[in-house]
Design goal:
The chain is an alpha+beta fold. It contains 7 helices and 7 strands. The chain starts with 11 loop residues before the first strand and ends with a helix.
Length: 197
């Protein structure tokens, strides 16, 4: 049994372009509760600088560009990936991490993006909808801890509210007179509550 039990399982999540090898979205995680004074503990970010991250990403793209498998061991880390259009989705975990669990994360990300972006997962669409992509990743992973792997749940939490809900907001009077009416109403209700006590 491992002595270091932790929920922390994802070191990085990367979305990289295969055309020009650029970064679309990258998030690197460090374990939230690191031992004091330790920089070599499990879950420590092995790529703290942007330069080191870009070197890692470049090597990863070169290694996975012509791969037929979805799981590799690269730089002592388990890397699972999926290619969607002209982008690669990567989830990077520690060397002893469960690759099936990490593969579930990359599939959840792929399927949630397909739902949110209406099956148009390419570089241009991802950049145009960067907010939705970032929120989807935050719904799936928080500080390296996997929260949700159901793409439908992730998409429902991230997607914009339906337009029929917005129409009810239009009935609110936000003019000066409307705000004064709300203030008077609040004062009356507060006075009634005070009298009851």
């Amino acid at each position: 049994m491992p002595t270091n039990m932790s929920l922390f399982s994802v070191n990085a999540i990367l979305i990289l372009s295969t055309d020009d090898r650029s970064r679309i979205l990258t998030k690197y995680y460090s374990a939230p509760h690191a031992p004091p004074g330790s920089t070599n503990h499990p879950g420590a970010n092995p790529y703290p600088s942007v330069k080191e991250q870009k070197v890692f990403e470049k090597g990863l793209l070169e290694k996975t560009n012509k791969q037929t498998s979805d799981v590799i061991l690269y730089d002592g880390r388990v890397v699972v990936f999926k290619m969607e259009g002209d982008v690669m989705l990567y989830v990077v975990g520690g060397g002893d991490e469960n690759e099936i669990m990490l593969f579930g994360v990359v599939l959840a990300l792929r399927d949630a993006l397909a739902i949110l972006l209406k099956n148009s997962t390419d570089k241009r669409t991802l950049v145009e909808n960067y907010d939705l992509v970032s929120l989807a990743i935050d719904e799936i992973i928080d500080d390296g801890i996997i929260l949700e792997t159901d793409p439908v749940v992730v998409a429902s939490r991230v997607s914009k509210p339906p337009t029929q809900d917005i129409t009810s907001v239009k009935n609110i009077d936000l003019s000066e007179q409307g705000l004064m009416n709300a203030w008077e109403f609040g004062k009356l209700k507060l006075a009634e509550r005070m009298r009851q006590l």
